[in-house]
Amino acid sequence: MADACASSIAKSPASGNAKTSTIAEGNERLHFESIIDKWITHTSTDISDSFIAMMKAATGKTGELTEAQKRMHWFEIRGDNIMTSSETGSKANWAHYLYAMNLIKGHLHKHYGATMSEQVMLITPYARHKQLYQAAFQALRDQQGWTEAELPILADVASSIGHHRNILLIDLVVSKSGSDLDGMKDDRRLPVVFTCAKMSCWVIAGDLQHA
Questions:
Q1: Annotated region Disordered: where (predicted)?
Q2: Strands 153-155 and 120-123
Q3: What pTM was estimated for this model as a whole?
Q4: 1 occurs within a structural domain
Q5: CATH of the domain at 176
Q6: In a domain, 10, yes or no
Q7: Which domain, by its residues, includes 130?
Q8: In what side-by-side order are the strands of the sheet with 153-155?
Q9: HSE-up of residue 107 (Cα within 13 Å, Cβ side)
Q10: What's the pLDDT tens digit per position in 115-158?
């Protein structure tokens, strides 16, 4: 891509030593590259200065951002952190889940507050991983008094289609190249998922440069 999406490398938040840093642009994720390029080209919702400031704080980006950097960010969580159900084969990833929940409870909630459900949608392709978020969201309701308006819309790939939010947070769950993306590698489906984002898309995944 001429103006590639930016990426961060992060250690698992579970270790208590989470770290994110901007790396050189141009890392190819061969399957996603052309789809992301097309989405960035066609999305046009204006991005406010306050959102850019929040995004920089969340991603570690500094300086003047390109249009691609504003529209797309890739959180690269290192390590094989997958748990697979022996009964259903559905996957979950605690490192991804914890990283996403830190974003939701921290930067995103501070920025959006009671408008979160109108602004943010979280998509994950695996039922087992979705259950982690459902339990976490219920705990926020019960223990911290969060309302539905303060929580992102939670969806899987199929149920996300036709719904749009300014911010799309995609947790791919998988953590290494060659992993089964449970339908996310379907070229007919993935472009539709990206169009759910009207303004900016954040992807949480592992090292998928050659996925």
A1: 1-22
A2: parallel
A3: 0.78
A4: no
A5: 3.40.50.300
A6: no
A7: 20-205
A8: 20-22, 6-10, 72-77, 197-205, 165-171, 120-123, 153-155
A9: 17
A10: 999 999 999 888 889 999 999 999 999 999 999 999 999 998 87
